[in-house]
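**Protein record**
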Amino acid sequence: QVSLVESGGGLVQAGDSLRLSCAASGRTFSAYAMGWFRQAPGKEREFVATINWSGSSTYYADSVKGRFTISRDNAKNTVYLQMNSLKPEDTGTYYCAQDPLRYRSAVILMGGRESDYWGQGTQVTVSS
């Protein structure tokens, strides 16, 4: 079974930066698309960014495009989310996700289905 553990969240001011990490274990990390999602209080979970198995293709929500960067280090079984120019609207719990099937397009993972693998989340709070 796969295990995903997020870290790097915290309390920051608007304009600050954070780097989130997601450490994966349990199966061959390099064969699967990975993604980041977030959920604000009282809101549904939303897509943030995804990356394919090799790191050659990435996708971003319009709300974070130009500010966030998703990347991966397959040798370390880790995916990252670099968040710059943070806004109060970025506040929420950030979840790491993994596609249950290998070598698929990262577009598929954008849907954030319950059948995907999920971490427990890390809290990001951005104050004004």
Observations:
- Helices lie at 106-109.
